[in-house]
């Protein structure tokens, strides 16, 4: 009180309380009121009063007065201030007894609270937003570049809105951008944890504790010349001694080894994970994840709602322009490996006791490689459920002896996980194993090398799959043995969740690991080659999709042919060539496609048979494709049941052949001539046996089939009826008829029935022997119409109907109709 009076009025003020000050007793409230009245408007600020008063507890004859005298002064001061209209007293008292210090401090706190409580106007402590301003003003100079601040706030806000499913809902609201501006250059998430979580620790003084911690953080970041746009929870340099010591002042001592092992430090797990995975390392993603979890969860360890949500973890560490997915992957990997990190649902927190995850890690490390490989093989067996375009999937065969060599259909061989491949490595384990299987089946040479395609794991990714399998087996064993291990309900649930997650992780990793297609290739048919082309598949998530994914890629690249046209088959027959003289055995041709790698890789034998049918029934078979015969008669030097230009039932029996079109056309024409000669002779003989009758009848068509009842070929004229001609045998095709004057004939009509089995040949003869004579005349207009009529007692398959309609449209049919009855 002597000091107080001196500060207010120097000697005059002190004189008013000099006697009380010298005796160490409190002045009366009247004396103090007179002092306040004399000096005018007065503001009295008293801080750390408890610290001063507790030193007097239990002591007497001190210059500052006794413990009781000081409390009496507090009573007189407050009464005098209340009675003085222009005097205000502001005093600070600790929020908790633990801060008061000892018995004297606690007694002083109780007494002073009672004294002030009778007449105080208590002030509300600074709220969160006021805390932002207090910290910012104490640690930073006033902001002058408001444009930069607004740009940062806008960038973060737009990032959160564009990835709203990855962050808390509140971050997508307009108000969050205002909070970003208000807290700049500190992220609001960091302030929220400080004021909501850390302030719940008894020793952590709300404003003073925040200031002390943030002063340490800002100092270290400034020293490190950190260039981050905002100070985020992930920015807190927990690895530095200064900052770590501030944290540990509020936490138990056993947190230090936990921080150094699982959170932040030169040998900490997060830093090791980042160094092993470049996609994490470029962001220090795992380290930032660990810092965020520690900062948000350490003060809540004793809380019923401990931990921090995964969305808040990302909010505390991801910046605009960075991949959110990368941080999600880093979080999963850290959760799998950290010793003191716990997880429940979508919440994560660090604890002071090793988690069940540590036990899982220990067990995972105990599995030998052979066990893991066998488990991966079991997981791959699921792929057999879907074969794609392959006739069969061979999953992890032990050797080439396990891959059959009797079928000409293409098969996919998924190599064992031991045989992995790396880009552009011609001598990888996968390449060597594929060459062995391609060359041999057991100890015998392989015949059908063009039916094998290999799928191998990536050399780097297989290690991730092995680790995932180890963890899956470890978690499954912990789940089974939960009673033996005496797990509590939370730990058992954690084991079940992790076991399920681990299996799902394996399912996701298989297509991300098995993506190297090794395809036999041989560009030059004259030079034998054991080359294997490497092709990288784009992974597709899900089970049973390896074969389908491979099939789709191979079809696109024409490395696997599921459908072949007759024209394309003819090109391959001529390119090599595959003809054996004028023909090729269909059975031999099928084996060629399965055997020789320089030929297109047909999906199966059906593809070849469909191509043969397509080529044989082609309208332009003479120019573009080939003919089909049931066999070759060596004695007669002719083909048996030779067919061209029409549908055919192809049989693979070792006798059936494809025939070159020029040779087939010659035989078909000779057979037609032979039939025509026989028919004419029969007609002449029949005509000679009966008397001639006058009629106007043109010569029967030389093109009529012996299997059909022909429509008459009729001629219609305009003008007077000409003389009745008598029947004359048709002249040979090599002779020309004698030209006669037909100046009064102005129109010509004709119809003829054609043998559909040799339609191309007979239609050509109509063209050569009739139509050509008309078109050669000047001014003649000729119209030729082809009419097709078929009776279908057994109906038509939908596929055939569709094919006919599509081909009719392509060939510009004027009508193309079907009738039901």
Q: What do you see in this structure?
A:
There is one protein chain. The chain is built from 30 helices and 18 strands. It has 821 residues and is of the alpha/beta class. It folds into 5 domains: 116 residues, no CATH class; 227 residues, no CATH class; 188 residues, no CATH class; 103 residues; 94 residues, no CATH class. The strands form 6 sheets. Strands 6, 7, 8, 11, 12 and 13 form a 6-stranded mixed beta sheet that branches. The protein has a 3-stranded antiparallel beta sheet with strand order 3-5-4. α18 packs across α21. It is elongated, with a radius of gyration of 49 Å. 30% of the residues are buried. About 5% of the residues have low confidence.
Write down how many β-strands occur, each being a DSSP E stretch of 2 or more residues.
18
What level of helicity do the residues show?
A: 40-55%
Quick check: average pLDDT?
A: 86
Distance between the termini: 123 Å
By DSSP (H or I, 4+ residues per run), the number of helices equals 30
Low-confidence stretches: 695-739
Strand content: 5-15%
**What does the overall shape look like?**
elongated
Supply the number of structural domains: 5
Give a short account of the largest sheet.
Answer: 6 strands, mixed
Q: What gyration radius follows from the Cα positions, in whole Å?
A: 49 Å
Structural class: alpha/beta
């Amino acid at each position: 009180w002597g000091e107080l009076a001196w500060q207010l009025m120097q000697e005059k003020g002190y004189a008013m309380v000099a006697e009380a000050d010298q005796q160490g007793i409190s002045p009366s409230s009247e004396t103090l009121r007179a002092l306040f009245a004399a000096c005018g408007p007065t503001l009295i600020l008293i801080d750390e009063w408890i610290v001063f008063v507790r030193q007097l507890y239990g002591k007497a004859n001190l210059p500052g007065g006794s413990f009781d005298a000081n409390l009496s002064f507090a009573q007189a001061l407050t009464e005098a201030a209340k009675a003085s209209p222009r005097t205000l007293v502001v005093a600070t008292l600790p929020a908790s007894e633990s801060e008061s210090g000892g018995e004297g401090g606690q007694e002083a706190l109780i007494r002073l609270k009672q004294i002030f409580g009778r007449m105080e106007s208590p002030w509300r402590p600074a709220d969160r937003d006021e805390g932002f301003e207090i910290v910012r003003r104490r640690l930073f100079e006033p902001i002058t570049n408001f444009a930069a601040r607004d740009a940062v706030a806008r960038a973060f806000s737009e990032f959160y809105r564009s990835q709203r499913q990855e962050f808390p809902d509140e971050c997508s609201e307009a108000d969050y951008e205002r909070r970003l501006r208000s807290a700049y250059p500190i992220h609001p998430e960091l302030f929220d944890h400080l004021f909501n979580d850390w302030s719940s620790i008894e020793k952590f003084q709300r404003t003073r504790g925040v200031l002390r911690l943030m002063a340490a953080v800002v100092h270290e970041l400034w020293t490190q010349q950190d260039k981050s746009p905002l100070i985020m929870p992930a920015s807190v340099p927990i690895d530095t001694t200064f900052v770590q010591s501030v944290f540990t002042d509020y936490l138990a001592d056993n947190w230090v080894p936990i921080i150094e092992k699982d959170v932040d430090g030169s040998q900490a797990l997060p830093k090791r994970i980042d160094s092993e995975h470049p996609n994490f390392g470029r962001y220090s993603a795992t380290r930032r994840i660990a810092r965020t979890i520690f900062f948000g969860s350490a003060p809540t360890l004793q809380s019923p709602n401990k931990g921090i949500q995964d969305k808040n973890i990302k909010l505390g560490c991801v910046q605009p322009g960075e991949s959110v997915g990368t941080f999600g992957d880093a979080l999963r990997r850290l959760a799998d490996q950290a010793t003191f990190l716990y997880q429940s649902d979508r919440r994560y927190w660090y604890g002071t006791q090793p988690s069940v995850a540590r036990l899982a890690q220990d067990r995972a490390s105990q599995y030998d490689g052979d066990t893991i490989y066998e488990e991966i093989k079991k997981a791959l067996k699921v792929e057999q459920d879907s074969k794609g375009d392959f006739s069969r999937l061979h999953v992890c065969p032990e050797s080439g002896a396990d891959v059959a060599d009797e079928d000409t259909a293409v098969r996919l061989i998924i190599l064992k996980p031991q045989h992995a491949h790396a880009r552009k490595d011609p001598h990888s384990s996968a390449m060597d194993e594929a060459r062995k299987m391609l060359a041999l089946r057991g100890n015998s040479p392989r015949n059908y090398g063009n039916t094998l395609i290999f799928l191998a794991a990536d050399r780097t990714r297989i290690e991730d799959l092995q680790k995932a399998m180890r963890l899956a087996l470890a978690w499954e064993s912990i789940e089974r043995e939960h009673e033996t291990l005496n797990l509590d309900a939370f730990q058992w649930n954690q084991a079940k969740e992790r076991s399920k997650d681990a299996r799902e992780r394996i399912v996701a990793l298989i297509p991300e690991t098995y993506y190297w297609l090794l395809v036999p290739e041989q560009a030059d048919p004259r030079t034998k080659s054991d080359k294997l082309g490497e092709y990288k598949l784009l992974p597709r998530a899900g089970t049973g999709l390896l074969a389908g994914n491979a099939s789709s890629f191979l079809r696109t690249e024409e490395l696997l042919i599921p459908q072949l046209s007759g024209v394309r088959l003819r090109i391959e027959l001529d390119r090599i060539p595959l003809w054996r003289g004028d023909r090729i055995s269909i059975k031999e041709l099928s084996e060629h496609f399965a055997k020789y790698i320089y030929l297109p890789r047909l999906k199966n034998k059906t593809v070849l048979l469909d191509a043969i049918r397509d080529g044989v029934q082609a309208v332009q078979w003479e120019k573009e494709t080939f003919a089909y015969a049931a066999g070759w008669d060596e004695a007669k030097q002719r083909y048996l049941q030779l067919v061209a230009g029409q549908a055919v039932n192809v049989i693979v029996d070792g006798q059936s052949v494809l025939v070159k079109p020029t040779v087939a056309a010659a035989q078909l024409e000779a057979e037609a001539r032979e039939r025509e000669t026989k028919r004419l002779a029969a007609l002449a003989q029949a005509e000679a046996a009966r008397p001639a009758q006058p009629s106007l009848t043109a010569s029967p068509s030389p093109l009529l089939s012996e299997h059909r009842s022909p429509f008459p070929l009729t001629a219609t004229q305009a003008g007077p009826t000409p003389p009745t001609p008598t029947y004359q045998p048709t002249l040979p095709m090599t002779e020309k008829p004698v030209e006669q004057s037909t100046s009064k004939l102005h129109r010509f009509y004709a119809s003829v029935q054609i043998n559909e089995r040799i339609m191309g040949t007979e239609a050509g003869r109509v063209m050569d022997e009739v139509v050509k004579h008309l078109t050669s005349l000047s001014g003649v207009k000729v119209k030729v119409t082809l009419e097709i009529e078929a009776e279908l007692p057994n109906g038509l398959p939908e596929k055939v109907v569709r094919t006919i309609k599509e081909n009719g449209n392509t060939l510009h049919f004027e009508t193309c109709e079907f009738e039901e009855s």
